[in-house]
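Intended use. Records like the one below are meant for learning the mapping from a protein sequence to its folded structure. Do not use them to infer anything beyond what is encoded.
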Amino acid sequence: MRAVCYRIIALILGLTIYAVASAADFHVRPATECANNGDGTTAACAADGGMAGAFRGFTSINWSALQPGDSLYIVGQHNAGLVVGRSGTSARRITIRGDKAGAERGIIDGGGTLDVCLTDNNHSYLSILNLEVGHCLNRGLQFDNGRGVDRAPMGGAFVNNVFVHDIAGGGSYPTCIWGYGHQAVIENSRIQNCGDDGLWWVGDSVGIRNNAIAGVGIGPVETGDCIQLAGVSRQFNISRNRCDHLAANEKHCIIVAPPDGTVFDATAGGRIEENTCFMPPYDGLDTKGITVAEPNVLIARNFVTGARIGIAAAGPYIVANVVTQFHDVGILATGQPGPWALVASNTIVAVAGENGQVAPAYCLAAYETSGEFVNNIVSGCNVGMAGYGYHPNNVWDTNLSWRNASTYEFGQPALNTTLNTLTANPNFAGTDPRSARSWAVLTAVAGKSLSGYIEPNVGTPFVFDFLKNLRPETPAVGAYEPDSK
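Structure written out for the chain above:
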C-alpha cells in the first residue's frame, strides 16, 4: 500500500513539474511579411500554411493554442490593433512580449487611423512586457475587465517596461493607458503625448509605480491628468512616478476621486508616495498637483511644483511633502465630515516675485475639516496658515512661518482662535530662521539653513534643489527606452 502511495505521489509531482516546464512561446509577425500563416511556434515565416512558423498578423492568432503560462512575442512593427483572446491564471499568466532585438522589436503603430492599439476585454492575468504602442486615436492600452461597484473578479493586469505614446487623434477622451480591473500593476513604463489622461484606472489593489509621464492634455479641447484613479479604488499604491507638463491643458498630476455623490467608504485607502510633479504655471485652469477625495490615504514625500493648488485632500495623512511655486494654496486639507486629518512636516514655499508672480493666498489651509497641523514650514504667502468654513478644534502646533505677510487667518463662521489650539508657531521676517532657538525651529530645521532643509528626502526623485541648481544625476525610473532594445 505504501509503495502504491509513493507511486501516486511521484506521478502527481511528475505531472506538476511537466506542467510548469511546458510553457510555450508563440510568435506573430506582420501579415505583410509572411505569405503563410504558421502555427506560431517559431519567429520565422512558415514555409507552408499550418507549419512551424509565426502567426501571420494579429487576426490569424490561434488563441486556443495558447495555454496559461504561455507567451506571445510580437515580432516587428504591426499596423493593426491587437485584441487579446485568452486569460491566464494567478499562477500562470498569459504574457505578451515585445522584447526581440533590433528590427524584430515589437511595435504596434496605429498610423493615426486605428482607434485602439491593444484591447483586453474580460480577461484575467495578462502581462504586457517590453512593448511599444503609439499613434492610435483613442487608446494605447485598453483593459475592460469588469465594471460597477461589485466588479467581477477579473483583473490582474501587469504592464511593465512599456512605451505608450502619441494617443491624441481626437477620439473621446484619448488616453494612453485606460482600464478597469482589480490587482493591476503598471510600472517602469514611459507614457508620453496623450490627448487626455496619461493613465486612467478603476479597481482595487492597484499599483502604479516608477512610471515617467509627459505631455498629457495635448488634445485641442482636453484637460488631462497624468494619473487618475476613478470610481472607488481601495488599497492602491501610487509611488515614484514622475509627471512633466508639456502642454498648457494639464489639470492634475495625480487625482484619486470617486464620482460625485459617492459615499466615502471607510475601508478605502491607499498610498501616494515619492512622486514628482512638474506642473504648468497657473494659466486660469483649476490645476492641482495631487488631489485625493477618499479617506485614509497617506500622501508622503512627494514633490509638487506649479499649479493653482499643490495638494488638496479630504481626510488624509499629508506628511513630509515639498510644495513650491503654487498660485493660490500650497496644501489644502478639506472635506467635512471627513476623518481627522494629519498634516505634518511639510515644506511649503511660494516663490513670489518670479516672472511677475504675486504671493499666493495661503501656504497651508484647512477648509471644513478638523485635524492636526504640526511641524510644517510655510513661507512666502500672504497668509501662512488659514482655516475657513467649519473647522473646530484644529491643532496648529510647532509650525514655522517665514516671510509670510501674516501668520494666521480664520474666516467665518466665527470659529477662530478660541476653538483652535495655537502653540509655538513662530513667525520670522529675517533671512535665516536659525537665529531663533525655538523648539520648532530646532526640530524642523535640525540646524540646517532653510534652503538646505527643503532639498529632497533620500529616495525622492527630485531633479532640482531649492536653489534651482540641477542635481548631478536624475535617478532612473526604469522607463522603457526604445533605443535600448
